[in-house]
C-alpha cells in the first residue's frame, strides 16, 4: 500500500513532464525493438531510430545525469541503446516532444557558446545549461529514460552487463537466505546458535 | 485433474461468480467444492506463476497487471459539487487501483494479513455517533467471524505468530513467521526503546511449504508484482486450482460483465457480458455472486438499471457506491549507516499495534498499525526516480554517489489507518467519460474526513519517534495530503440489518434481490486499520457457507 506521494512516484516524478504514450499499442513490437537494441549494444551496431547527431546530444545529457566517476556512468552502460529502443517501442511518440526541445537547446548552445551541438561543449558548460532547464520536459524525460537505461532489465537495451545494478548494490538473483542485511544478522545468529550440549546439564525425563 | 467444464450459456448454472480476486477466488472454490456448477467471469487474462516477471518497466511503468487506463479511464473529484476529471497522464495510478486477471489484486498485493479486533465491529456503540458520517456497528461480531479468519490462515496460507494485542484465535498459525529483515529489526529496536510492543507481521506468504505450495525464496518482488513461486497466497495460487480440480468450475477470462438482468419476479436470470472476442453473451444462472471489488461491483449494480430498479440494481436505499473508504496512510523514509539490503525478501516482517484503538484523549477518531518495509525503494528504477532525500541533488556526480550509498541503506515506515464512512465519498457513473466498451467510467468522489488525516499524521509522529530511537542517519516525511485514490476499495455495498441504510444483509444477500449476493470489500461497514484483505476473505468463507446451506434448502 502506498501513500499518495508514493502513488505519484509510482510511474514517475509527477511533474507531468513525461507526456509519452505509456502503453505502446504494439507491446510485442516494443519487446522486439528492445531485443534489437540489446543486440546492437552488445555488438556496437548503429542505432535504429536516432540519428547520429541527436544520439550524441542525448547521450551527452545522460552522461551528465549519471556521469562516469570511479564507476561507469550512463554512457558506459549503454543508456543510448535503451533510449533508441524506447523511442522505437514503449515510449513511441515521445520524440515529437524531444526533437523540437533538443533543437531549442541547440539554438541556445549556438547563441551562447557558438557551437553547433550540445555534445560539443565541455562538461561545465553542459551542466550550466542543464541546470537552467532541469525542471522542463526535455530534461525530465531524458532523466527518466537515463534511469530506465541504467537500471531496467538489460534486455531493454541498457544496463550493459548489469553494470547499472552493480553500481547500486542490487543483485538480481531470485533466491536469498537470511541474514539479509546488517541489522537483522544478530537475530539470525541467535536463531541459528547451536543448541546447548546435552552434556552441560542433566535432564530428567520423568514419565 | 478433472477436465474443465464448458457450460452452455442458455442453460442455468447454479452460480455465476463475477470476479476471481481475493473474494471471488474463495467463492469459486467454496461453491464448486460444495457441489455446485459455477461459471467465473473474469475481465483480465489467466496469468500463471511462470508468466510473472521482475520487469519494472512492464509491471510498474506499463502497469501490465492492471487494465489499460486508455481503454478504462476513471475520473476523480474531491467533492460532489465539483466536476470529476480524468487525472492527467503520468500522474500515477488510477483512482481505484486494482489488478485485472485471475486472482485479481491478490496477485499483486503485499500480503499484510491482520485480523480485525473485536472492537472494529462495535466501535459505534462504544464511541457514539460521529457527526456527518455513516459510522455504524457491523451486523456481526468478531466471535462470529473468528472461525473464518482461521480458515483464511490455514486454507489461504498465512505465516505468523501471535502478538500481545491480538484478538483471540482458535488455532495457531499454520506456518511460522517469515525471517526478520533489517527494516523489521530496526522497527523492533526503535519501538522497544520507546516502551512499545513490536510483533511479528502476519503475512499471506508461505515461510514453509503448505497445502502443496512451496515456501518463499525471498526474491524481493512482492508489492505490485506477481509471485513466480506460488508462495504468495493469492487466490490464483491457493484457491483457483482447487476450484478447477472439482470439474464443476469454468473460468472464462477476457469477459467483461455489462449488466445483470432480472426476470418478472425480480430475480437475477442472466449475466450479460462481452466475451473475449467482444461478442455479447448472456449466461443464465440460478444466482449471481458479485465479487468484482468495491469500485466495479458498485458500478455494475448502477449499470444494471431497470424499470424495477430505476437507480440501479438493489439500490432502493441509495447506498450503492456510497461510503467509499480507502484507508488513510502516512509514510516516513529513513537512511541508516549500514546496509539493510531491503531488495531481498518480503515487504514487512515486524509491525507495531500499540496505536490500534481510538483514544479519545487524542481528540479525534481513529487508529492504525505501523509497519516497516522498503515500499518502492527496493526497486532500482523507482529508487533512482524518487528515493533520494528531499533537497539533495537529483542528477550529477553527487546524485550518483547518493544512489551508490543509499540504495542498500533505505527503509520506510508506514502508518496504516482508519477511514470514516461518509455518503459524500463514492463510486458513481461518470456522466460523460466512457470506457472502451461504451460503459460510463468509474467516477471516484473522495475527500478524507479531518479525523482520518489527523490519525495519519499522528501515526507518522509515532513512526518518526521510532526511527529516531532506532538511530536513523536521516529521515523525512511524505507530507500527509488528502487521498486521490488507493487500492483498498471498501464500503460501497454496505452490509446491514436495515434495508434503508445498507445494500446487503449480514449474509451478503441483496435486500431487494433474493438471488444476488455481493461479496467483496464493498461490504465493509468500517474500514479497519489499513489491511482489509484478510477480512474480505473471512467474510467470503462465511458467505459461501451460508449460501451453500440456503441453496441446498431451496432458499436462494
Task: Record the SSE blueprint.
The complex is a heterodimer of chains A (207) and B (556).
Chain A: H1 4-11, H2 27-43, H3 52-65, H4 79-88, H5 95-113, H6 123-133, H7 137-151, H8 163-168, H9 185-192
Chain B: E1 15-18, H1 24-33, E2 38-42, H2 56-61, E3 74-77, H3 123-127, H4 142-157, H5 182-193, E4 198-200, H6 235-238, H7 240-245, E5 249-253, E6 256-262, E7 268-274, E8 280-284, E9 288-290, H8 296-303, E10 329-335, E11 350-352, E12 368-373, H9 380-386, H10 397-406, E13 410-417, E14 426-434, E15 440-445, H11 450-469, E16 474-477, E17 516-518, H12 533-552
Helix pairs in contact in B: 1-12, 4-12, 5-11
Task: Walk me through the structure.
The complex is a heterodimer of chains A (207) and B (556). Chain A is an all-alpha fold. Chain A contains 9 helices and no strands. Chain A has helices spanning 4-11, 27-43, 52-65, 79-88, 95-113, 123-133, 137-151, 163-168, 185-192. In chain A, helix 2 packs antiparallel against helix 4 and helix 3 (52-65) packs across helix 7. Chain A is elongated. Helices cover 22% and strands 16% of the residues of chain B. Chain B has helices at residues 24-33, 56-61, 123-127, 142-157, 182-193, 235-238, 240-245, 296-303, 380-386, 397-406, 450-469, 533-552; strands at residues 15-18, 38-42, 74-77, 198-200, 249-253, 256-262, 268-274, 280-284, 288-290, 329-335, 350-352, 368-373, 410-417, 426-434, 440-445, 474-477, 516-518. The chains are: A mainly alpha (207), B alpha/beta (556). The interface between A and B is large, with 64 and 82 residues.
